[in-house]
UniProtKB/TrEMBL annotation, chain A:
InterPro entries: ARM-type_fold (IPR016024), eIF-2B_epsilon_N (IPR035543), eIF2B_epsilon (IPR051956), LbH_EIF2B3/5 (IPR056764), NTP_transferase_dom (IPR005835), Nucleotide-diphossugar_trans (IPR029044), W2_domain (IPR003307), W2_eIF2B_epsilon (IPR044123). GO terms for cellular component: cytosol; eukaryotic translation initiation factor 2B complex. This is Translation initiation factor eIF2B subunit epsilon. Its main location: cytoplasm. Keywords: Cytoplasm. Residues 563-734 form the W2 domain. Residues 1-25, 443-498, 531-561 are annotated as: Disordered. It is found in: Cytoplasm, Cytosol.
From TrEMBL, chain B:
Residues 161-172 have a biased composition (Basic and acidic residues). This is Translation initiation factor eIF2B subunit beta. It is found in: Cytoplasm, Cytosol. The keyword Protein biosynthesis applies. It holds the Pfam family IF-2B. Keywords: Cytoplasm, Initiation factor, Protein biosynthesis. Gene3D superfamilies: Translation initiation factor eif-2b, domain 2. Residues 152-172 are annotated as: Disordered. The keyword Cell cycle does not apply. It comes from the Eukaryota. Belongs to the eIF-2B alpha/beta/delta subunits family. One of its GO terms (molecular function) is translation initiation factor activity. One of its GO terms (cellular component) is cytosol.
Length: 735, 416
């Protein structure tokens, strides 16, 4: 027996200690921190009633997969951090026998509770305060599914730490190609761009919110100069499994504004270079790991489980309760032994049917997961959907690509369109239609959602809902429902009516982006649209200044934006300038203000010069009478007054050229009044030393090859240019 | 048996998580676990300790089999242990009875599951047993025990119903039974450990000079078999089919070369092309079924068909712990396990084929990675077990020597 004990410990222990561990007697126990709260709202409305980690994923709560994996990966002690619905999580841990199961060979699971944590950062700070972690630990979220072996990653981490104590974290990444159309991974998360040192595997750059509209990332040049080689990846998936040193916890405590593990911590460490701490990556070669972040990944991971990528965590091998086991049949159909299945019902490939479920005549079930104790009537079509436990679906219903929670009742003929989420105990009336992408819950939608960094739990009765209960079914706060009443209203109303519960409105950007992260596959039209956008994008890359392209086109979009930007900037400069003229703002302050504007619009110095010049000329124009003479006079005055300001911006020939070009443009387009005076104002600009002769000569030179129409002003000021040239020659002669 | 429970659940978990695999390791560990179950089992005062003991074993066995129904060796060992308990009990009873009722033995030996035997004779026999011997009788052993997961309670309740006080003789006999059973299980473990020896002893008789042997994948039994032939100075060549997708054949090739055996590695798909040059196919098995069919690593059926086509003898070497008393029904599906597709494909490379969001929602790429093949008995020429060579049609008889017929379904009687 003792022999067996030592063997079972061997896996994790030996790996944790590395090859040449100092104390042969007992390697330090490997600890893990499991965050049983995702600190997001992606799974609402379901997560209002049940924490995300307890949502069933192919019949088993997600946390069960995570804990099972941690145990089989050799973790000795796991701390489950629960926040939202902590009681439910704790209860589950008790009931499933994870908690309080200390013994040789098995993992000790302890729940850590805190109610005021609102982010992963807070959670880690709590863990640190309680002093639970003594060595390196695995940081994982309770919604991560994996079957990878931690051994290699752990050994790498330990070896690296021995050499370099600043290597505080090893991130597990996995090769996975994002879609070219949506720039999303198959899990529905944004494409991640990472820069990794190919030799040391050090992570140099991490960007999960790459600008999809422009398709570019900005990498600090220091990264490029400090690292002779680096690999840029956009085909890596972050598994959200990290091996951390204890320093990570203190880092979170020191930087109390760190909230998000990736957005704040990883990026913070990479960008700010705090104490020189480094993050490394470990690429997962064999094995599976994925985090369920949204409904899309819920769908994808479910299918991966059904397709057995997560072996041995597949429905026929592990079952959470001691209920009747399900067996795998051909074509990846998993069926419990006590399913009541009508002879005429069809179960298509990649489906799972839980125990004690009955399925009526002529039903068709495809690519779906049906939970336990469900009753499905006749002629029901369920396609690509996730039906949880104890659901009643009456005759003739159609459910496609949706999530149907526990206790939902679909009355006869109801149709659930793709992408819907029906939360617990929702009832859908006879022949009712639930529109695509709607989310229905018995609980009203909380009105005070501010950011996406919010909690899962925000109290459910906060504020009065602003989404009216759907179709007169129920007034606000009236929780008691008499079933018979519902029946009547259900029968009387058809069409879109007849849903008991609140239909949640999606957030501001939600409606447009709904397709990105829903269970439903992206619709054909959307795909075509994206395809169209991509192909057009390819075609127009070289002529990006064409403003007539449709706004789907990214690169031209940015060009148009650029023009917009400059004209806006000019307007603001003009306004500022006018204020300066009116109120007599100090010249220095004016320069400061204009510089501020320039930074705000992130423009060049030359743009500034153009804009200021434009403003000066505009002011002259306004002050002038209608005659050319007076215009010339006011212009001369204005230029005389503001020459210092202009000179401030005309430090290089380029900027002077910019002013010239601007002047030319003004004469041609906006303020034609100046056009006859061009040749007269030019010498004046020269005299006030706003524009040097170099600039004028270069301008003339450049224009020599231009179109005739462009040469108008060069010709007009030919005499002046000639004089300049001669003056120059004279200078030369004098020397 | 509070002390065994953690051990049992630990092993159940390991089986469930597929941490223990391979029939040898599984068989050995099951036997060890059952030995500790027996040794930890508190013998009640009842007259039929053997039944209580068998029930304890059965209770554990049921869990183990459910944990990984594919590892048939678990069930085999559980059945072997049940058989051992029965035999030890019979022998101790026989010693106790000493000629009083020889008929009892012979009667019951052959109709055990006969539940509705005349109650009169049962009562008579029970009375005999109780009054004359105060030792566990066969009859009580065979009675349905009216309970329940808690074994100790079972024991005590039957003890109550029997209503006899313990005697010194009783105690010694119980202790003797337990001791005997433990010793017998120890023998079984030794047998599992050393099963290679009697098998490989037969190697020289089967492998002749300058023969060409073909094998698929890696089986320790096959390896020992070939080693033994090599040690006896036979010179022969071995073709090793690599055994995709786990490529255990590569490992075997290495091991054979280390021993100085002429080895050629071929792909699985080249088996048919090479079979005409082969004199004999020698393969291992995952399990041998009662009908003589074989559950073997995937690809074996193809090799067997190729061998049959070219009339090459197809020899299966297997230790006795692989003999399974069950008849296969739909073995391709029910006695198989589909492993992770990652053995075949690199997930990252194919991840774009599995982007369900841009497909129609139904996966277009499916990967099937079965672990086992079923080779029907008609394709097998010879079985070599520790007891010698047997033809497939003899397997059922061989199996009857190791198992009792009423243990085929390992289930606690109460739940039946």
């Amino acid at each position: 027996m003792s022999q067996k004990k030592s063997r079972s410990r061997g896996g994790g222990g030996a790996a944790a200690a590395g090859d040449d561990h100092e104390d042969l007697a007992r390697p330090p126990p490997l600890q893990a921190v499991l965050l049983a709260d995702s600190f997001t709202l992606k799974f609402r409305p379901i997560t209002l009633e049940r924490p995300k980690v307890l949502l069933p994923l192919v019949h088993m709560p997600m946390i069960e997969y995570t804990l099972t994996w941690l145990e089989s990966a050799g973790v000795d002690e796991a701390f489950v951090f629960c926040c939202a619905h902590s009681n439910q999580v704790k209860e589950y841990l008790e009931k499933s026998g994870w908690a309080g199961r200390a013994g040789a060979g098995s993992m000790a699971v302890t729940a850590v509770e805190s109610h005021d944590a609102i982010s992963a950062g807070d959670a880690l700070r709590v863990i640190f305060e309680r002093g639970l972690i003594h060595g390196d630990f695995v940081l994982i979220s309770g919604d991560t599914i994996s079957n990878m072996s931690l051994k290699d990653a752990l050994r790498e981490h330990m070896d690296r730490k021995k050499k370099d104590p600043l290597a505080v974290m090893t991130m597990i990444i996995k090769h996975s190609k994002p879609s070219v159309l949506t720039h999303q991974t198959r899990l529905g998360t944004d494409e991640i761009v990472m820069a990794i040192d190919p030799e040391t595997k050090e992570l140099l750059y991490y960007e999960d919110r790459a600008d999809n509209s422009n398709l570019y990332v900005t990498i600090d040049k220091d990264i490029l100069s400090n690292n002779p080689t680096l690999q840029l990846h956009n085909d890596m998936e972050d598994c959200y499994i990290d091996i951390c040193s204890p320093e990570v916890l203190s880092l979170f405590t020191d930087n109390f504004d760190y909230q998000h593990l990736r957005r704040h911590f990883v990026k913070g460490l990479l960008v700010d270079d705090i104490m020189g701490y480094k993050i490394y990556t470990h690429e997962l070669r064999s094995g599976y790991a994925a985090r369920i972040d949204n409904f899309r990944s819920y769908d994808t991971v479910s299918k991966d489980i059904i397709q057995r990528w997560t072996y041995p965590m597949v429905p026929d091998v592990i079952s959470n309760r001691n209920c009747s086991e399900s067996r795998l049949h051909r074509q990846a159909i998993y069926k419990a032994s006590d399913v009541t299945l009508s002879h005429s019902a069809q179960i298509g490939a990649n489906s799972v049917v839980g125990s004690a479920t009955s399925i009526g005549d002529h039903c068709r079930i495809l690519n779906s997961v049906i939970g336990e104790g469900c009753t499905i009537g006749k002629n029901v079509v369920i396609n690509g959907s996730y039906v949880w436990d104890n659901v009643v679906i009456e005759d003739g219903c159609q459910v496609s690509n949706s999530l149907v929670s526990d206790g939902v009742h679909l009355r006869a003929g109801a149709i659930v369109e793709p992408g819907c989420v029906l939360s617990f105990n929702v009832e859908v009336g006879k022949n009712a239609l639930v529109l695509a992408h709607s989310k229905v819950s018995l609980l009203p939608q909380p009105s005070n959602e501010d950011s996406d960094e919010e909690l899962e739990y925000a109290d459910t009765n906060s504020g009065v809902t602003d989404s009216p209960p759907f179709s007169s079914m129920r007034s606000n706060g009236d929780q008691a429902t008499v079933p018979s009443e519902e029946d009547e209203s259900g029968t009387s109303e058809t069409g879109t009516c007849g849903v008991v519960g609140y239909i949640w409105t999606s957030g501001d950007a939600g409606i447009l982006e709904e397709w990105r992260q829903s269970i439903a596959p992206i619709s054909k039209e959307k795909l075509e649209e994206l395809q169209h956008a991509v192909s057009e994008n390819d075609g127009s890359e070289d002529e990006s200044n064409n403003p007539t392209l449709p706004d789907k086109d990214d690169s031209s979009d940015s060009a148009v934006e650029d023009d917009d930007l400059i004209s806006k900037f000019e307007k603001e400069v003009e306004e500022t300038f006018q204020r300066a003229m009116g109120g007599g703002v100090n010249r220095d302050n004016l320069i400061l203000e204009i510089n501020g504007l320039r930074l705000a619009y992130s423009l060049q110095h030359a743009d500034c010069a153009g804009a200021v010049f434009y403003s000066v000329m505009k002011s002259a124009l306004q002050a002038a009478q209608s005659t050319n003479d007076s215009l010339l006079k006011t212009t001369a005055e204005a230029l005389g007054k503001w020459k210092d300001l202009l000179r401030n911006y005309t430090k290089t020939v380029d900027e002077e050229m910019e002013i010239l070009l601007k002047f030319e443009e003004m004469c041609q387009e906006t303020t034609k009044e100046f056009s006859p005076l061009f040749s007269k104002i030019l010498p004046f600009l020269y005299d006030t030393e706003v524009i040097s002769e170099d600039a004028i000569l270069r301008w003339a030179e450049e224009k020599e090859h231009a179109d005739e129409s462009d040469k108008v002003f060069v010709k007009q000021s030919e005499a002046f240019i000639q004089w300049l040239k001669e003056a120059e020659e004279e200078d030369d002669e004098e020397e | 048996m509070p002390d065994v429970q953690p051990l049992v659940s630990d092993f159940v978990l390991k089986l469930k998580r597929r941490k223990v695999e391979g029939s040898h390791a599984v068989a050995r560990q099951t036997a060890e676990l059952l030995r500790s179950v027996v040794s930890q089992h508190r013998m009640g005062s009842s007259a039929n300790q053997a039944a209580a003991l068998a029930d304890a074993v059965r209770a554990v066995g049921e869990q183990l089999i459910a944990a990984n129904p594919i590892e048939l060796a678990v069930g085999n060992v559980v059945r072997r242990v049940l058989h051992i308990i029965k035999e030890e009990d019979i022998s101790s009873t026989a010693v106790g009875i000493e000629g009083l009722s020889v008929t009892v033995d012979s009667d019951d030996e052959y109709d055990r599951e006969d539940d509705d035997r005349p109650s009169l004779s049962a009562a008579v026999l029970a009375a005999h047993a109780r009054n004359a011997l105060r030792a566990p009788s066969l009859q009580t052993l065979l009675e349905d025990i009216p309970v329940s997961p808690a074994i100790s309670r079972t024991a005590s309740s039957t003890g109550d119903s029997d209503g006899k006080s313990k005697s010194a003789g009783d105690k010694t006999s119980t202790r003797k039974l337990k001791h005997d059973v433990i010793a017998a299980i120890g023998d079984l473990i030794d047998e599992i450990d050393s099963c290679y020896e009697p098998i490989s002893e037969q190697a020289v008789e089967l492998i002749h000079q300058n023969e060409v042997i073909l094998t698929l994948g890696r089986s320790r039994t096959v390896k020992e078999f070939l080693y033994a032939a090599k040690e006896k100075k036979r010179s022969f060549r071995v073709f090793v089919a690599e055994g995709a997708p786990r490529y255990q054949g590569h490992v075997l090739a290495k091991e054979l070369v280390e021993k100085g055996v002429q080895t050629t590695v071929i792909t699985d798909s080249a088996v048919f092309a090479m079979i005409s040059r082969v004199n004999m196919v020698i393969v291992g098995a995952h399990a041998v079924m009662a009908n003589g069919g074989v559950i073997a690593p995937v690809g074996m059926n193809m090799v067997a068909l190729a061998a049959q086509r070219h009339a090459v003898p197809f020899v299966v070497v297997a230790g006795s712990h692989k003999l399974c008393p069950l008849y296969p029904h739909n073995p391709e599906v029910l006695l198989n396990e589909l492993k992770s597709p990652s053995d075949l494909l690199d997930f990252g490379e194919f991840s774009d084929c599995m982007n369900f969001s841009t497909q129609d929602g139904s996966p277009l790429l499916n990967v099937v990675n079965p672990t086992f093949d079923y080779v029907p008995p008609k394709l097998v020429s010879l079985f070599v077990t520790d007891t010698g060579g047997h033809s497939p049609s003899y397997m059922y008889r061989l199996i009857a020597e190791y198992y009792s017929a009423d243990d085929l379904v390992v289930r606690r009687k109460s739940s039946a």
